Amino acid sequence: MTGKTPSAVTRRFGIGLAVLALVATACTSGEAETQGNSPDDAADAAELVITPEEGAEEVAPNSPVTVAAENGVITDVQVEQVVVSEAAAEGESEDDADLYAMTGTLNEDETEWVSDWNLRPGSEIVVTATAENETGEATELVQEFTTLDAVPGQRLELESNYPSSGDTVGVGMPIVINFDLPVSNKAQVENSMEVVSEQEIAGAWNWVNDKTAQFRPEEYWDPHQQVSVDLRLAGVEASEGVYGVRNYRIDFEIGRELIATMHVPDHEMVITVDGEEERVIEVSNGKASRHFDTTSSGTHVLMERYESLTMDSATVGIPADSPGSYKVDVQYAVRTSSSGEFVHEAAYNGNIGSANTSNGCTNLRMDDALWFFENTLMGDVLDTTGTDREKEWDNGWGVWQKSWDEWVESSVTGEAQVTDGSGTPGSVHGDQ
Fold first, then answer.
1. What are phi and psi of 234, to 5 degrees?
2. Averaged over 284-299, what is the pLDDT?
3. What one-character-per-residue DSSP string does 248-286 give?
């Protein structure tokens, strides 16, 4: 078996993309066939009912597949999904086939099976179910139906994600998913995104806006481990009439634990790697003459980086020739917020290590800036204290600015998921 860890009253079948030629018996679609014992045996044959019904057309992709058995127990369910819509299959390769394996949940008495995930839009679906009665006599039912295609312009796609597959990131890294269309059915979408890590931990999603969801664990990730994200978006109804068409998998690595701490009045940054002090760097932070040029306090997660960058106040709402405007070229810039805070080289600042005179960024000497640029990862942590400007949780990747309780409460499902492969907190299906 594969799939989600069962609860006390359920167990899950791991069901792949079925190959009907491997089914032990053949029968007419929509008609049950029994095998095993003679008609004179006293036990009644098991009976199977599959929903959606045989021959149904344009079934909503977010409808569950259910199998019910009477006079017996369910022993196997296989779901084959063949995409017939060219638009739905666009950009798909043969290597993607395992992303669409269908698992399901079997109830305690093994008489009802419900699919865990949604169906692919624009597809022909073949469900093959088998049950056995108390004497071991097998009944098989094969049933076919088709799903509604996703309308052009109303197909939810993954626009971007951080990290990307193959990345090695720091222990503070959130999982950031950006969609191309707004999501209103956020609970179903949250439940379609499962995070699995080698070292299990509770985690949850929050929405920055209608297009962006971020996942963080309860505490920093344990270092030196692999993490996978299964985005089972195919068939999920993101908003009325808008369906996901593809599934995605993101595999990345958590590297060593690098934590930088900075108490702004002290003019220095202390860096530890896996709990050992690695480097002390002299800095100059914001002069704090106004909110804008005050370095924010809080837990920052390192974001994008540039070998060279023009720091232009016009990009953050202060036009040229306005009071406090600036435009300067710097090297080795690492972003810590969306509002314009960076750690970067500032050879022009003669106050590094002695006074805070920057426009809000953390200024470093050239050799320290180069070291910081080369030795930090996206997702590393910079903890800053000592100013009266608090970093906002949605300013960049400020996910650690909320307490764990606040984070879970802000999740649309209101529940954490554990990263042990046991699944997500609720259903991905639409209203039934």
1. -60, 120
2. 94
3. EEEEEEE---EEEEEEGGG-EEEEEETTEEEEEEE-B-B
Contacts of 70 (CB under 8 A, 6+ apart): 46, 47, 49, 111
Residue type, position 266, single letter: D
pLDDT of the residue at 52: 98
Whether the bond into 61 is cis, omega within 30 of 0 = no
Tokens encoding 30: 């929509």
**Other C-beta atoms lying within 10 Å of the C-beta of residue 326:** 13
Distance set, CA 24 to CA 82, 127, 299 (Å)? 21, 15, 58
Please tell me the distance from the alpha carbon of residue 164 to that of residue 97, in angstroms, as a whole number. 20
177's enclosing H/E stretch is: strand 175-179
Average pLDDT, the chain: 90
Average pLDDT over residues 348-371: 97
Q: Report yes or no: 345 and 332 within 8 Å, Cβ to Cβ.
A: yes
CA distance 362 to 372: 12
- What span, in angstroms and rounded, lies between the C-alpha atoms of 147 and 102? 15
Instruction: Report the alpha-carbon angle 129-131-134, nearest 5.
Output: 180
pLDDT of 24 strictly over 60: no
Give the 3-state secondary structure of residue 405.
helix
Cβ–Cβ < 8 Å for 326, 256: no
Other Cβ atoms closer than 10 A to 55 = 11
Contact status, residue 41 vs residue 409, Cβ threshold 8 Å: no
Nearest to 191 by CA among 430, 424, 419: 424
